[in-house]
Design goal:
- By secondary structure, the protein is of the alpha/beta class.
- The chain has 14 helices and eight strands.
- Helix 6 crosses helix 9 and helix 8 crosses helix 9.
- The longest helix is centred in the N-terminal third of the chain and has 33 residues.
């Protein structure tokens, strides 16, 4: 429902506000009513008693157990209203935060036009990749993730995706803002996986769409409506048909794969291989980034096949290997494939 707060701001906002008010009104009524004289004298008790010939019913309804249960229902209604207030606030931030001034980067962010910068590095960041053990705390894991994002940006990474499918909106919003804070000073752009509302609320540079997301055309209509014409839209694709569809719907770039075999992408079937990936690059006009099984040993193959850059998680997850990671970035950025 909260996506509609962005898509249809006025009607959706009124609907959600009315719903929240009803939650509070019903909740307060249920909490207070069982302890009033009106509850004890209520006509419906005698009406039902008369119909059912059940003199025990008024006694049952005025017992402490029933009064407490009804009061509990009222409290649950109020909690539901409070929960929806927070959700509502997070959603409408997309309509408010976009007017806030954004931090200016000391250098211009890399363009997604292949003529200006022929090779791009796309870090797909997931905090679980930085969890060293099952006992590791969430705060330590996120700190390692943000450290790696800052390192990647300083080493020349152009695009950084926040891919956290299990995080609620509020936590994803906070994480995205932390990523922007460490990435934007180096000119890197931050995108959010799937959650267009979070991306807009955080002031991110774009969104990365999947097969289950809004289409690129629908996302573009929303970002144009709220004045974010510079907003970048990336799309995940796994075939030439999907790549052509993403291009026709207005994507700025696509990520295509898996190019090589990788455990995390086996749900998408067999890897497409260099030949099929090369065909996609030759048929698509927008930048195509390679994903899946990319390593320091094979990253030149997709670049030679026409990729505008590479994307991945595993390449960039160890902050302690800063020198090696930086060298990998430099090799890719300097590749004249």
């Amino acid at each position: 429902m909260y996506y509609f707060v962005i898509i249809f701001p006025m009607s959706a906002k009124i609907t959600v506000i009315v719903y929240i008010l009803i939650c509070f009104e019903v909740g307060i009524l249920l909490m207070v009513l069982p302890w009033t004289q009106y509850w004890d004298d209520n006509f419906f008790l005698y009406f039902i008693t008369g119909k059912l010939n059940s003199p025990w019913f008024p006694t049952f309804m005025t017992s402490g157990y029933v009064r407490g249960a009804v009061t509990g229902l009222g409290a649950l209604n109020i909690l539901a209203g409070l929960r929806d207030i927070f959700k509502f606030r997070e959603s409408v931030q997309a309509l408010v935060a976009i007017g806030e001034p954004q931090k200016k980067a000391p250098r211009e962010s890399a363009s997604l036009e292949t003529g200006e910068n022929p090779k791009f590095i796309y870090l797909i960041s997931n905090r679980q990749a930085f969890r060293q053990s099952a006992e590791a705390s969430e705060s330590v894991t996120v700190r390692r993730q943000i450290e790696a994002i800052g390192l990647a940006a300083s080493a020349g990474c152009d695009l950084i995706q926040i891919r956290e499918k299990d995080l609620p909106a509020r936590e994803m919003l906070a994480l995205t803002r932390m990523a922007i804070e460490v990435a934007r000073p180096h000119g890197a752009r931050v995108l959010v996986n799937d959650r267009l509302d979070v991306a807009l609320a955080a002031g991110a540079d774009g969104v990365h769409l999947t097969a289950e997301s809004l289409s690129a055309a629908e996302a573009r209509a929303i970002t144009d409506r709220v004045g974010r014409q510079e907003f970048k839209i990336g799309v995940s694709t796994h075939s030439l048909e999907e790549a052509e569809a993403a291009q026709s719907l207005g994507a700025d770039f696509i990520v295509s794969g898996p190019v090589f075999d990788t455990l995390s992408k086996r749900d998408f079937g067999e890897p497409m291989g260099i030949a099929r990936f090369s065909e996609i690059c030759s048929r698509i006009r927008i930048p195509v980034l390679a994903l899946g099984g990319i390593t320091p040993l094979n990253f030149r193959q997709p670049l030679e096949a026409g990729a505008a850059g590479i994307a991945g998680i595993g390449l960039f997850t160890d902050p302690q290997r800063s020198c090696e990671i930086s060298e990998h970035f430099k090799q890719i950025l300097q590749c004249n494939c």
